[in-house]
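Researcher: Please predict.
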Amino acid sequence: MKIVTVIGARPQFVKAAVVSRLLAQEERAREIIVPTGQHYDANMSAVFFEELENPVPEESLGIRSRAAGQANGVDRLDQRHRLHGFDIARPRRTAADIRRRGERCLAEEDGDARAHAHIFRLPGIYGAGRNALEMVREGKARRIEKPGQVLSRIHVRDLGSVLTASMDKPNPGAIYIVCDDEPAPQHAVIAYAATLLGMAPPPLVPFDDIAAEMTPMARSFYAESKRVRNDRIKQELGVTLEFPTYREGLAAIHARMTA
């Protein structure tokens, strides 16, 4: 299986490192790292690949700043979007727009890309070294409340199980929603992590009170609220989630931290 990982802003470097280490253990998977190039200073890009031991990129989209991407990068993306037989989506207003365009490109593609493509729609990924426990322990966690808003997530080990099961039962053209069984508000996850650590949870802060000081990326997580179903990974791929909710996942991580 050939997997193209497109990395943009710095938080994605950390998330990608967890997945890359997992894929490196699977002989049938070959990951291709494609940074957008928006962080072109070595201290904001190259150092992440070195310290996180990410695979060395084979391509870069060279977008640099947002303005440069809008002014010059779109044409370059059109010229270079067929990387290793895959289409890279032209930038749009939201990440969801980019994903949808990428999926449409794959559906319309001729040849091997379309014949072998599998699409995995991923939520937030957590695991050892990247989780709510670490944030609470380091004093970086905030409990943000936006009524009715929930987020989906997946433990990296369950993500690995889904990818492996798909390799065992390939179904070209399939679209899999990969998430656990319980979409939950961010503040509930942070509160549970604090409970496991025996610490007082951070105070609950209304989203509207702090939205103005949040980065555009942070605000984007609260722009939508979706409850999605993961039936297909269970029924078609036969996956049984090791961590069906964030509670089992965080409890297992905490047990390893305190062992």
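Model: The longest helix spans residues 10-24.
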